[in-house]
Specification:
The protein is α/β, with parallel strands linked by helices and 498 residues long. It contains 17 helices and 20 strands. Helix content is 35%, strand content 19%.
Length: 498
Amino acid sequence: MSRVVVIGSGLGGLAAAARLAAGGHQVTVLEQAPQVGGKLGWYARDGHGFDTGPSLVTLPQVLRDLFTATGAPLESELDLLRLDPATGYRFADGTRLQLPGDPAGIPAALDDALGAGAGTQWTAFLDRAERMWQATEQPFLRSPLAGAATLARLARSTGDVATIAPWRSLRGLGSGYLQHPHLRTLLDRYATYSGSDPRRAPAALATVPYVEQAFGSWYVRGGLRRVAEAVARRAADRGAELRTSAPVARVLTEGGRARGVQLAGGERIAADVVVSNADAEALYAGLLPAGAPVRAARAQLARTTPSFSGFVLLLALQGRTPGLAHHTVLFPQDYDAEFDALFGRGGPPRPVADPTVYVSAPDDPATRPDDDSESWFVLVNAPRHEPGRGVDWDTPGLADSYADRVLAVLAERGLDVRSRVRWRVVRTPADLARDTRSVGGSIYGTSSNGARAAFLRPANASPLPGLYLVGGSAHPGGGLPLVLLSAEIVTGLVGPAR
């Protein structure tokens, strides 16, 4: 039996703990916060409840695989509901689009909203995206990064290379299929799932809308925080110890490998294996001793572009909004101006003046005190918290003034709720950085900007023997399915208990 310490109880850390404990390892999970979940957070007040992180489950089979591999099936723990529709889109010219949950109905919905031929364009694009998914799922997403060997797996046939088109951007690929400007805007949005710019993100991100539409968008009754709670229970049931309010100060090394951790209070916990669910940049910059062999990993991270962050409003509303989907996305007139602001083109990074606004409003009694109320999680993409170099989100008055601006944008685009607000909570990138120790509040660690970005993402096996990385800042990337896959990869790398 190997002793394993897991740093952080985000979904990646919890999933790794459950798998490793089920495999016979002695597992201890250490979480700095008073509760488990990491970015799968929950905020409750006066009967209103909000998921403060992810609000959808996509590719649910990955979650099912986790529960099957560790005991009783998923359905024994969670009530998973397929959303129909999952998202309503509102474009700057007033056009509205709701995509049905059944993929067979999507072409007709696009034709109805955007005109004849839009459905055919989108279908042709998704056919290409499906081929890309088939070419990359096993050799890349479900396998550890292994330098040239990873490239060899992806290049096993010239046809696959042509399908993936690693030399093309997501925007560039879409322009070859999508003539309608609203379809191109819709596609650009999927770059933001990894905190990226569609003009620089690789064409392979076309797999994101394919997965979302082919396998559905799902919600967990009671909120997605239930996912973290269920995986934590599964880990504990398999014998893992979960300790909250236990921040890790550093990783201990001995004999050239990881040998445990030291907590902020001085306690040392010995281990044969350390699995870090901490932000990779924070791990390599602050949790390892000076002599650890991670110089190349730090240099590789320095060559990446960090993902952007998010500015959030939690709105407790009086009354109900008719016809509201689970998600509503309100696009700006100039999407490129948003990406320019986020990544500092034409000046330093700056809050977006006219942002895309995402509203998550689950129709779930667990999120509201009564049937004449709503709880909205409102998100806009925002630059990282970088005092002295970019935006200092702790500047007095900035958070509240920008919150007022976001509410005004909602009103300008047809969702004026200012007179219905009982109270609001504002969460900035600086808050996210403090709460989750993600550097600058980057939601996904590094972005996918650039053809080589996926190969620069920190590998699951670190250069320090005995130290492994899981979570959204490590391979294969951010988002619930990929985070779960990172835990599966690490479990395979650690191997069975000896």
